[in-house]
Design goal:
Blueprint (H helix, E strand, L loop, with lengths): L9 H28 E4 L3 E7 L6 E2 L7 E4 L5 E7 L3 E5 L13 E4 L5 E12 L4 H8 L4 H21 L4 H5 L3 H16 L4 E13 L2 H73 L2 H11 L20 H4 L3 H22 L2 H5 L27
Antiparallel strand pairs: 1-4, 2-3, 2-5, 6-8, 7-8, 8-9
Length: about 375
Amino acid sequence: MALKPIQFDAGTAGRTARRILLAIVLGVAVAIISAITLTRIDASHVGIRVKLAGSTRGVQDIPLVTGWVFYNPLTEQIVEFPTSVQNIVWTASVHEGRQVDESITFSSQEGVNINSDIGLSFHIEPTLAPHLYLRFRQADLSLLADGYVRNALREAFNTVASRMAVQDIYGAGKGKLIADVSAKMAEVLGKDGFIIDQLTINGALRLPENVAQAINRAMEATQNAIQAENRVRQVRAEAEQAVAQAHGGAEAARQKAQGDADAVLIRARADAKSNEIIRLSTTGNVLQYRAIERWDGKLPMMQGGDKTPLLTFDVSKLAVNDAEREKKLRQLLNEEENKEKAKAPAESQMEQPAAAAPVPPPAPAPAPAPADSAPKQ
């Protein structure tokens, strides 16, 4: 079977080629238009739409957020404005920042020139970015910082420092200086969208040599005065401690002497009461009885010597009122009994004390033998 040759229709092929060519042209046109009318706003940036023609030409108040944005390149312009934190350093060192001296100089209340390295961190409020661009027509924040921001900073330092003494700025007042300058910067630059994040004085303040030496001498004198005052306080404290110790020792000695005196007095009173009890409980008969007990039955050979003669007592002269003597003796014995009860434990005090038995009068001693019955020597 013979194959038939394929026949091409010239009209159909031409239409297909034209369609392909048209599609290519349209694709290229769309790509070109998209590249021209589409732009991307980077992160930490805002877009500012600027109308170049029409009744609304100028900077638009509403900023464009991060992302892809369509615009008409013939009548509009998109400007990117950074909103991230900007760190600026103005220093005299050639190893940081630019290769020139960018340090800040300001004057104190006395007119002393003070030079310092300043560091500043700030960012732009996104909603105020169109206003800032409209005012300065500048999207490069480094140029704005070196111009407008630097001038505002120098003016703020001079305004604040002119109300402070150089010794305060060089000493403890440096923190107050920074805080007041930061507040002044926020007041001046805040309306333009600048947000001050941090203001620092880098390193030590640079003063004229004679002023620095005078301040150092004044500070040294102040430190010496403080040390001397501390030494005086220490000596005063040690003296007060010694006085307190002396008073304590004297008080302790006084208390001890008082205690010893009280003890002697108590013992004397006890001895006196004991002697009184013995006196009241001793009668003439008892004395005669004790003398007879100690007598060996022999009369002395002579008066004197190492022997004591047997004494006889006139009982009638020693006799006292028995009722009065017994009453006094009972009072003394009751006092001693009450003292013993007071010393007893608390539980014994709860018990009912037994009635004290009456003290019997001392038994009369036997009468001595008559003189004529005594053995002859």
